[in-house]
Amino acid sequence: MLSGFAKLVEQRIQAAQKNGEFDNLEGSGKPIEYVDDSGVPEDLRMAYKMLKNADFAPPEIELKNQILKTEDMLGGMQDSKEKYKAIKKLNYLVTKLNCLRRTPINMEEPQYSGRIIDRLSKS
Known about the structure:
Shape: elongated
Largest sheet: none
């Protein structure tokens, strides 16, 4: 059984449907994108969602993205001078990221050095 307020809301929704106010809405007929935010603490989820909607990323995420891009660039490089520059940049970015961490390094993701050595040895 619906309360008075719920009935009023339901009536307004039905009237809007009859008037065609829900026709041609953005994203109509497309599946809803599910975002898995189970890794984000519950009390921070709304704040993270607002930041994401504003196209803002925390500095740690920006640095991680720059590190991934640099690693990808490094994998395709042939020139040893360019590789050296990219490795210096990568070391700088990793050091900068490590300075921003709030937890010990050994409690986070595996270090990048092993992956870099693997990529360099393949080229």
